[in-house]
Amino acid sequence: xxxxxxxxxxxxxxxxxxxxxxxxxxxxxxxxxxxxxxxxxxxxxxxxxxxxxxxxxxxxxxxxxxxxxxxxxxxxxxxxxxxxxxxxxxxxxxxxxxxxxxxxxxxxxxxxxxxxxxxxxxxxxxxxxxxxxxxxxxxxxxxxxxxxxxxxxxxxxxxxxxxxxxxxxxxxxxxxxxxxxxxxxxxxxxxxxxxxxxxxxxxxxxxxxxxxxxxxxxxxxxxxxxxxxxxxxxxxxxxxxxxxxxxxxxxxxxxxxxxxxxxxxxxxxxxxxxxxxxxxxx
Length: 282
Ligand code: FE
Ligand code: FE
Ligand code: ZN
What we know:
globular; two-stranded antiparallel sheet; 10 strands; alpha/beta; binds fe (iii) ion; binds zinc ion; single chain
């Protein structure tokens, strides 16, 4: 049984998100810990988190993924914005300690003309400020499409951040299929080759989660527009190869496709069916 779920749009509390995930046939999910475009953290009660924790255990969920707000940019040219990233991530990670053993994923950021190396150094510096060795959450860097001055469009860039951070050895990566296809990695025809390259540059042991998205744009477009699985340029066959690849076994697969919880429920059902028939073929 693969761990498959979706990014939940609801902000109705953590336990409610767990039940929403269950209702859609998911056994993992992703969520924001605060308004994704704002900075205000959710009002959280420890009881709510304890109930979610109990629900996840009882329902045999895989690890869940919290997603940092989009506005966070740890390699902004503006020091105030970099400090805000430190503050938000510190708060979010403190919250995640109530749900031990899960993931906190963030976009490395855009260096906005400062250059790749300066950007990587600023990201690494932020990570060393928010990381604590006793933390029970693994921080994940997301692979990006590489639009504009976005860092993370190449696996080497994530490697560079990990090499520059003192806590680099404790970091993981979340692979986004839309982003890497848009970034020019051939997910469609050469998944084995892409994963081999990831293994060489970052290490497959660092890969902790996968964002399963189709793309509205052709490979290499550096655009980052998600499509429903099977309705984009990647296509369902290639998506199912991702879901069934032995190197990705046991990772949480998260849909971030442009639909609501109902649409995600249908997508999850269809993909589980496709995974089953593919395993039956073999
Ligand atoms: Fe993301
Ligand atoms: Fe993503
Ligand atoms: Zn995206």
